[in-house]
Each structure stands twice: as structure tokens, then as C-alpha cells.
């Protein structure tokens, strides 16, 4: 099982993503509704991959990742961002700063688990 930490402030998107990932049978998912919530739970969960919304109130996905990366045990965990503002320059910046992938919203629930597995594989190949 792939342990995935999903951080998303929109309850509907969390629900759709959870259903899609559970249907694959390959993921153990912990969902958080904010960056602060994720920071409280991430160490105990010890995820294999992060799936982070970019735009959230309080702390963005990028800021959340920066905070989690301070923990040496989490520094190499692949991070995938989801964003509705998938501008080429923003995607390039995220990838240049270590993101394993960027998934545009709205996303295809039927393709989500495969996209995540491919991003993990790319991340492993880069190390």
C-alpha cells in the first residue's frame, strides 16, 4: 500500500480524490483540510507521497511542503501539487523546486491513481 497524505481545503475535492484512490486498492490515504492540520499529523502517518493543493487559506501547499521538508524523515518524500491555476510558468517553477508532478484541476478521478504512481516512479528515477 502506498501511504498518501492529501492536503486539500475543498471537501468535495477531498471526497472525489478519496473515492478514486480507494477504488484503486493501492493507497492508504490520510486527508487533511489545511496545511496546519497536515503538519500536526504528517510525522505519525509517515507518508510515501504528498498530494497538496496549491491554493489554501492560511498556508499554501508550497508553504506546507516547505514546513514538512524541515523534518529529515520527510525531506525526500515525493510531492505532487494540484492546482486550478496551472499556468506553464507556475508548473515549471514547482517542478524546478522538486515537485514530482503537477496535476491540473479539474482532474480526472479515473486517472488520478495512475498519475500519482507515475510521479512517484519519476521521482525515484531522479534520485
From TrEMBL:
Keyword match Phosphoprotein: yes
Response regulatory domain mapped to chain residues: 3-120
SUPFAM superfamilies: CheY-like (SSF52172)
Keywords: Phosphoprotein
4-aspartylphosphate: residues bearing it: 53
GO BP field: phosphorelay signal transduction system
PROSITE patterns xrefs: RESPONSE_REGULATORY
Listed name of the protein: Response regulator receiver domain-containing protein
Organism of provenance: Sulfitobacter guttiformis
Organism lineage string: Bacteria, Pseudomonadati, Pseudomonadota, Alphaproteobacteria, Rhodobacterales
